[in-house]
Amino acid sequence: MQKKFKAFAPASAANLSVGFDLLGAALKPISGAVLGDEIVISESDKAGCSVSVTGKYAHKLPTDSKKNIVYDAYLLFKDRLEKMGKEVMDVHMELSKNLPICSGLGSSASSVVAAVLALDTIHGNVLGENGRLELMGQLEGKISGSIHYDNVAPCYFGGLQLIVQEDGCISTTLPDFDNWYWVSCFPGIKVSTSAARKILPKEYSRSDVITYGRRLSAFVHACHTHNDRLASKLLVDVIAEPYRASLIPGFEDAREHGASIGALATGISGSGSSVFSIFEDLEKAKEMKEYLERNFIANEDGFCHICKIDRRGSYAEEL
Protein backbone atom coordinates (compact mmCIF):
# COMPACT_ATOMS: atom_id res chain seq x y z
CA MET A 1 0.00 0.00 0.00
CA GLN A 2 1.37 3.40 -0.99
CA LYS A 3 2.15 5.91 1.73
CA LYS A 4 0.19 9.17 1.76
CA PHE A 5 0.38 12.09 4.21
CA LYS A 6 -1.02 15.59 4.60
CA ALA A 7 1.11 18.38 6.08
CA PHE A 8 -0.26 21.75 7.21
CA ALA A 9 1.66 24.94 8.05
CA PRO A 10 -0.10 28.03 9.45
CA ALA A 11 0.24 31.68 8.49
CA SER A 12 2.61 33.83 10.50
CA ALA A 13 3.23 37.48 11.28
CA ALA A 14 6.89 38.45 11.51
CA ASN A 15 8.68 41.43 13.10
CA LEU A 16 5.65 42.34 15.27
CA SER A 17 6.86 45.95 15.26
CA VAL A 18 9.32 45.52 18.12
CA GLY A 19 11.29 42.55 16.76
CA PHE A 20 12.52 43.26 13.23
CA ASP A 21 13.80 39.95 11.75
CA LEU A 22 13.74 38.40 15.24
CA LEU A 23 10.10 37.87 16.26
CA GLY A 24 7.26 35.96 14.66
CA ALA A 25 3.87 34.59 15.67
CA ALA A 26 1.79 31.79 14.15
CA LEU A 27 -1.84 32.80 13.65
CA LYS A 28 -5.08 30.82 13.70
CA PRO A 29 -8.55 32.31 12.97
CA ILE A 30 -11.03 31.88 15.81
CA SER A 31 -13.68 31.20 13.16
CA GLY A 32 -12.03 27.92 12.24
CA ALA A 33 -11.16 29.15 8.73
CA VAL A 34 -8.05 27.64 7.16
CA LEU A 35 -5.19 30.15 7.18
CA GLY A 36 -2.15 28.29 5.93
CA ASP A 37 -0.87 26.03 3.17
CA GLU A 38 -1.40 22.27 2.92
CA ILE A 39 0.52 19.61 1.05
CA VAL A 40 -0.65 16.10 0.32
CA ILE A 41 2.32 13.88 -0.51
CA SER A 42 2.16 10.36 -1.89
CA GLU A 43 4.44 7.78 -3.44
CA SER A 44 4.49 8.00 -7.21
CA ASP A 45 5.13 5.69 -10.17
CA LYS A 46 6.81 8.58 -11.99
CA ALA A 47 10.51 9.22 -11.45
CA GLY A 48 11.49 12.16 -9.28
CA CYS A 49 8.88 14.60 -8.03
CA SER A 50 5.73 15.93 -9.66
CA VAL A 51 3.86 18.93 -8.27
CA SER A 52 0.27 20.09 -8.70
CA VAL A 53 -1.30 23.21 -7.20
CA THR A 54 -4.86 23.94 -6.08
CA GLY A 55 -6.37 26.54 -3.77
CA LYS A 56 -7.55 30.15 -3.93
CA TYR A 57 -4.14 31.57 -4.82
CA ALA A 58 -2.91 28.78 -7.10
CA HIS A 59 -3.16 31.09 -10.13
CA LYS A 60 -0.62 33.44 -8.57
CA LEU A 61 2.16 30.82 -8.80
CA PRO A 62 4.31 29.90 -11.82
CA THR A 63 2.62 27.50 -14.25
CA ASP A 64 5.89 25.56 -14.54
CA SER A 65 5.86 23.28 -11.48
CA LYS A 66 9.66 23.09 -11.50
CA LYS A 67 9.71 26.80 -10.64
CA ASN A 68 7.63 26.19 -7.52
CA ILE A 69 9.38 26.39 -4.15
CA VAL A 70 7.82 23.02 -3.31
CA TYR A 71 9.85 21.44 -6.11
CA ASP A 72 12.97 23.24 -4.85
CA ALA A 73 12.25 21.69 -1.45
CA TYR A 74 12.31 18.24 -3.02
CA LEU A 75 15.64 18.90 -4.76
CA LEU A 76 17.27 20.20 -1.59
CA PHE A 77 15.81 17.35 0.47
CA LYS A 78 17.06 14.84 -2.10
CA ASP A 79 20.56 16.33 -2.01
CA ARG A 80 20.59 16.23 1.79
CA LEU A 81 19.52 12.57 1.94
CA GLU A 82 22.00 11.52 -0.71
CA LYS A 83 24.78 13.07 1.35
CA MET A 84 23.53 10.93 4.24
CA GLY A 85 23.75 7.84 2.02
CA LYS A 86 19.98 7.44 1.79
CA GLU A 87 17.69 7.08 -1.21
CA VAL A 88 14.78 9.38 -1.95
CA MET A 89 11.50 7.90 -3.11
CA ASP A 90 9.56 9.15 -6.10
CA VAL A 91 6.71 11.36 -4.91
CA HIS A 92 3.82 13.53 -5.98
CA MET A 93 3.06 16.67 -3.97
CA GLU A 94 -0.23 18.53 -4.22
CA LEU A 95 0.02 22.04 -2.78
CA SER A 96 -3.16 23.72 -1.62
CA LYS A 97 -2.14 27.38 -1.86
CA ASN A 98 -4.37 29.15 0.64
CA LEU A 99 -2.09 32.10 1.43
CA PRO A 100 -1.49 34.99 -0.97
CA ILE A 101 2.10 35.67 -2.04
CA CYS A 102 3.91 38.86 -0.98
CA SER A 103 1.25 39.41 1.69
CA GLY A 104 3.23 39.65 4.93
CA LEU A 105 1.66 36.44 6.22
CA GLY A 106 4.60 34.12 5.63
CA SER A 107 3.20 32.64 2.43
CA SER A 108 6.50 31.26 1.14
CA ALA A 109 7.44 30.04 4.62
CA SER A 110 4.12 28.18 4.88
CA SER A 111 4.73 26.36 1.59
CA VAL A 112 8.34 25.63 2.56
CA VAL A 113 7.46 24.29 6.01
CA ALA A 114 4.63 22.12 4.70
CA ALA A 115 6.84 20.75 1.91
CA VAL A 116 9.82 19.86 4.09
CA LEU A 117 7.58 18.40 6.80
CA ALA A 118 5.71 16.30 4.21
CA LEU A 119 8.93 15.05 2.60
CA ASP A 120 10.58 14.15 5.89
CA THR A 121 7.43 12.48 7.23
CA ILE A 122 7.00 10.17 4.23
CA HIS A 123 10.70 9.25 4.53
CA GLY A 124 10.38 8.27 8.19
CA ASN A 125 11.58 11.53 9.79
CA VAL A 126 15.23 11.11 8.81
CA LEU A 127 16.19 14.78 9.22
CA GLY A 128 14.77 15.38 12.66
CA GLU A 129 13.62 18.71 14.06
CA ASN A 130 16.83 20.70 13.64
CA GLY A 131 17.58 19.24 10.22
CA ARG A 132 14.12 20.18 9.01
CA LEU A 133 14.41 23.72 10.33
CA GLU A 134 17.81 24.28 8.73
CA LEU A 135 16.46 23.09 5.39
CA MET A 136 13.43 25.34 5.74
CA GLY A 137 15.69 28.30 6.42
CA GLN A 138 17.78 27.61 3.35
CA LEU A 139 14.70 27.46 1.14
CA GLU A 140 13.25 30.66 2.59
CA GLY A 141 16.62 32.33 2.06
CA LYS A 142 16.51 31.35 -1.60
CA ILE A 143 13.35 33.41 -1.97
CA SER A 144 14.22 36.46 0.15
CA GLY A 145 17.94 36.59 -0.63
CA SER A 146 19.13 35.79 2.88
CA ILE A 147 18.15 33.34 5.60
CA HIS A 148 15.49 34.65 7.99
CA TYR A 149 13.67 32.40 10.43
CA ASP A 150 11.11 34.90 11.75
CA ASN A 151 8.38 33.38 9.55
CA VAL A 152 9.73 29.84 9.24
CA ALA A 153 10.17 29.24 12.99
CA PRO A 154 6.64 30.23 14.14
CA CYS A 155 5.14 28.51 11.11
CA TYR A 156 6.99 25.31 12.02
CA PHE A 157 6.88 25.35 15.82
CA GLY A 158 3.80 27.50 16.39
CA GLY A 159 3.47 30.08 19.14
CA LEU A 160 5.49 33.25 19.54
CA GLN A 161 9.09 32.69 18.45
CA LEU A 162 12.27 34.63 19.25
CA ILE A 163 15.09 33.97 16.79
CA VAL A 164 18.32 33.14 18.62
CA GLN A 165 20.78 31.58 16.13
CA GLU A 166 23.45 31.12 18.80
CA ASP A 167 25.06 28.06 20.37
CA GLY A 168 23.09 25.64 18.22
CA CYS A 169 19.69 27.17 19.05
CA ILE A 170 17.85 28.69 16.09
CA SER A 171 14.64 29.75 17.82
CA THR A 172 12.97 29.67 21.23
CA THR A 173 9.31 29.91 22.21
CA LEU A 174 8.23 32.94 24.24
CA PRO A 175 5.18 32.88 26.52
CA ASP A 176 2.33 34.65 24.71
CA PHE A 177 -0.86 36.31 25.94
CA ASP A 178 -4.04 34.30 25.66
CA ASN A 179 -6.21 37.39 26.25
CA TRP A 180 -5.02 39.00 23.01
CA TYR A 181 -7.14 38.90 19.86
CA TRP A 182 -5.12 39.52 16.69
CA VAL A 183 -7.05 41.16 13.86
CA SER A 184 -5.05 40.18 10.77
CA CYS A 185 -5.95 41.81 7.46
CA PHE A 186 -4.55 41.37 3.95
CA PRO A 187 -5.75 44.22 1.70
CA GLY A 188 -5.25 42.30 -1.53
CA ILE A 189 -2.24 44.25 -2.78
CA LYS A 190 1.32 42.90 -2.94
CA VAL A 191 4.40 44.35 -1.28
CA SER A 192 7.48 42.39 -2.32
CA THR A 193 10.03 41.58 0.36
CA SER A 194 12.82 42.98 -1.81
CA ALA A 195 11.00 46.30 -2.30
CA ALA A 196 10.23 46.51 1.41
CA ARG A 197 13.92 45.98 2.22
CA LYS A 198 15.17 48.46 -0.36
CA ILE A 199 13.14 51.27 1.21
CA LEU A 200 14.93 50.85 4.55
CA PRO A 201 17.96 53.05 5.34
CA LYS A 202 21.40 51.46 5.14
CA GLU A 203 22.37 52.99 8.49
CA TYR A 204 20.49 53.90 11.66
CA SER A 205 21.20 56.44 14.35
CA ARG A 206 22.68 55.30 17.63
CA SER A 207 19.52 56.36 19.47
CA ASP A 208 17.31 54.22 17.19
CA VAL A 209 19.59 51.20 17.67
CA ILE A 210 19.47 51.63 21.45
CA THR A 211 15.69 52.07 21.39
CA TYR A 212 15.28 48.92 19.29
CA GLY A 213 17.43 46.85 21.64
CA ARG A 214 15.79 48.26 24.75
CA ARG A 215 12.24 47.63 23.55
CA LEU A 216 12.92 44.12 22.26
CA SER A 217 14.67 43.02 25.46
CA ALA A 218 11.91 44.58 27.56
CA PHE A 219 9.27 42.81 25.44
CA VAL A 220 10.95 39.46 26.06
CA HIS A 221 11.03 40.27 29.79
CA ALA A 222 7.33 41.22 29.69
CA CYS A 223 6.46 37.91 28.04
CA HIS A 224 8.29 35.89 30.69
CA THR A 225 6.76 37.90 33.55
CA HIS A 226 3.26 37.73 31.98
CA ASN A 227 3.03 41.53 31.91
CA ASP A 228 0.67 42.02 28.99
CA ARG A 229 0.27 45.75 29.61
CA LEU A 230 4.01 46.38 29.35
CA ALA A 231 4.33 44.05 26.34
CA SER A 232 1.65 45.94 24.40
CA LYS A 233 3.27 49.31 25.14
CA LEU A 234 6.51 48.03 23.62
CA LEU A 235 5.01 47.09 20.24
CA VAL A 236 6.43 50.19 18.56
CA ASP A 237 8.82 50.08 15.61
CA VAL A 238 11.73 52.43 14.85
CA ILE A 239 13.37 50.16 12.27
CA ALA A 240 10.90 49.37 9.48
CA GLU A 241 7.39 50.78 9.91
CA PRO A 242 8.37 54.47 9.66
CA TYR A 243 9.62 53.73 6.13
CA ARG A 244 7.34 50.91 4.97
CA ALA A 245 4.10 52.64 5.96
CA SER A 246 4.19 54.57 2.69
CA LEU A 247 4.00 51.29 0.74
CA ILE A 248 0.63 50.37 2.29
CA PRO A 249 -2.32 52.66 1.42
CA GLY A 250 -4.61 53.21 4.39
CA PHE A 251 -2.21 51.85 7.03
CA GLU A 252 -1.88 55.07 9.01
CA ASP A 253 -5.67 55.57 8.99
CA ALA A 254 -6.14 52.00 10.18
CA ARG A 255 -3.69 52.54 13.02
CA GLU A 256 -5.45 55.74 14.08
CA HIS A 257 -8.85 54.04 13.99
CA GLY A 258 -7.53 51.10 16.00
CA ALA A 259 -6.17 53.44 18.66
CA SER A 260 -9.50 55.28 18.82
CA ILE A 261 -11.40 52.09 19.71
CA GLY A 262 -8.88 50.67 22.18
CA ALA A 263 -6.33 48.69 20.17
CA LEU A 264 -3.32 47.71 22.25
CA ALA A 265 -1.14 48.04 19.14
CA THR A 266 -1.40 48.10 15.36
CA GLY A 267 1.49 47.26 13.06
CA ILE A 268 2.69 45.89 9.75
CA SER A 269 2.72 42.11 9.46
CA GLY A 270 6.10 41.04 8.11
CA SER A 271 7.08 43.37 5.29
CA GLY A 272 3.42 44.05 4.41
CA SER A 273 0.94 44.55 2.97
CA SER A 274 -0.98 42.79 5.74
CA VAL A 275 -1.46 44.53 9.06
CA PHE A 276 -2.29 43.31 12.55
CA SER A 277 -4.17 45.00 15.37
CA ILE A 278 -4.35 43.59 18.90
CA PHE A 279 -7.33 43.83 21.26
CA GLU A 280 -8.35 42.40 24.61
CA ASP A 281 -12.05 42.96 23.90
CA LEU A 282 -13.53 40.60 21.28
CA GLU A 283 -16.30 43.05 20.40
CA LYS A 284 -13.74 45.77 19.69
CA ALA A 285 -11.78 43.29 17.60
CA LYS A 286 -14.93 42.63 15.57
CA GLU A 287 -15.41 46.38 15.16
CA MET A 288 -11.86 46.70 13.84
CA LYS A 289 -12.42 43.80 11.47
CA GLU A 290 -15.50 45.51 10.05
CA TYR A 291 -13.57 48.77 9.62
CA LEU A 292 -10.73 47.07 7.76
CA GLU A 293 -13.12 45.16 5.51
CA ARG A 294 -14.83 48.43 4.57
CA ASN A 295 -11.84 50.76 4.36
CA PHE A 296 -8.60 48.82 3.98
CA ILE A 297 -9.30 45.86 1.70
CA ALA A 298 -8.76 46.94 -1.90
CA ASN A 299 -10.00 43.99 -3.97
CA GLU A 300 -11.47 40.48 -3.96
CA ASP A 301 -8.13 38.91 -3.00
CA GLY A 302 -8.20 40.58 0.42
CA PHE A 303 -9.50 39.11 3.66
CA CYS A 304 -9.59 39.75 7.39
CA HIS A 305 -9.61 37.32 10.32
CA ILE A 306 -9.71 37.61 14.08
CA CYS A 307 -7.00 35.26 15.30
CA LYS A 308 -5.32 33.81 18.33
CA ILE A 309 -1.75 32.61 18.51
CA ASP A 310 -1.56 29.15 16.94
CA ARG A 311 0.44 27.21 19.51
CA ARG A 312 0.33 23.94 17.58
CA GLY A 313 2.16 25.11 14.47
CA SER A 314 2.74 22.71 11.60
CA TYR A 315 1.70 19.07 11.68
CA ALA A 316 1.53 16.01 9.44
CA GLU A 317 -0.96 13.17 9.49
CA GLU A 318 -1.31 9.95 7.55
CA LEU A 319 -4.17 9.66 5.10
UniProtKB/TrEMBL annotation:
Name of the top EC class for this enzyme: transferase
Pathway(s) served: Amino-acid biosynthesis; L-threonine biosynthesis; L-threonine from L-aspartate: step 4/5
Subcellular location: Cytoplasm
One Pfam family it belongs to: GHMP_kinases_C
The EC number(s) this enzyme carries: 2.7.1.39
Reactions performed catalytically: L-homoserine + ATP = O-phospho-L-homoserine + ADP + H(+)
Keywords recorded for this protein, A-Z: Amino-acid biosynthesis, ATP-binding, Cytoplasm, Kinase, Nucleotide-binding, Threonine biosynthesis, Transferase
Residues binding ATP: 100-110
GO molecular function: ATP binding; homoserine kinase activity
GHMP kinase N-terminal domain mapped to chain residues: 68-159
Ranges where the GHMP kinase C-terminal domain occurs: 228-297
GO-annotated biological processes: threonine biosynthetic process
This protein's GO CC annotations: cytoplasm
HAMAP family noted in UniProt: Homoser_kinase
Function: Catalyzes the ATP-dependent phosphorylation of L-homoserine to L-homoserine phosphate.
Family classification: Belongs to the GHMP kinase family. Homoserine kinase subfamily.
Designated name of the protein: Homoserine kinase
Source organism per UniProt: Succinivibrio dextrinosolvens DSM 3072
Gene behind this protein: thrB
